[in-house]
Specification:
alpha+beta
Length: 179
């Protein structure tokens, strides 16, 4: 038994020392001159979002005309405002009205000095025929040009400036704000 204790006691002491070394974290002193920001320690606090009621344009199931519908959006800056407006344009209304943009995927939205560029992906099921394409263009133009800061709109399809969105209506690059 004496021989057994002779080996076990040093092993127990070493195990105890190793466990003690790894059990406590030492906090480094903060030597920076800037005080720590209260609240969120992982980065910038969330900016306060502004809410706004906007107009979006939907159509009936016969694609005869556009109907103005009010939508609420929340945003922190101009970029988010336009992204939210375009997302609202993609939402269907009541059972009588639907969005012409619901099947179209918005890849990116970029605004710089009043010039809005929207990059789109248009799947085959989003092709609406000539009257649908005309109304879809009118709907997006009315939606984005309600914001005074937007002077032009350029619609791209997968990064390319195409002649037509769906093959029916000629597309200008960029579309200028109507007078």
């Amino acid at each position: 038994m004496n021989k057994y204790l002779k080996w076990m006691l040093p092993l127990f002491v070493i195990a105890l020392l190793l466990a003690a070394c790894g059990s406590r974290e030492v906090q480094e002193p903060n030597n920076s001159d800037t005080p720590a920001a209260p609240g969120n320690s992982q980065g910038e606090p969330e900016p306060v979002k502004e809410e706004m009621k906007i107009k979006v344009y939907l159509t009936d199931d016969q694609l005869l005309e556009l109907t103005e519908v009010e939508a609420s959006i929340a945003f922190a800056d101009e970029q988010e405002k336009l992204e939210a407006a375009l997302a609202a344009l993609q939402q269907d209304g009541s059972e009588d009205y639907f969005s012409l943009w619901s099947e179209i995927k918005i890849l990116s939205v970029n605004v710089q000095d009043g010039a809005l560029t929207v990059d789109l992906e248009i799947p085959d099921e989003a092709n609406l025929g000539s009257s649908g394409e005309l109304l879809a263009l009118e709907a997006i133009e009315k939606t984005v040009f309600q914001f005074e800061e937007i002077k032009s709109l350029d619609l791209l399809v997968q990064g390319e400036a195409v002649d037509s969105l769906m093959g029916h209506m000629e597309l200008e690059h960029p579309i200028e704000r109507p007078l």
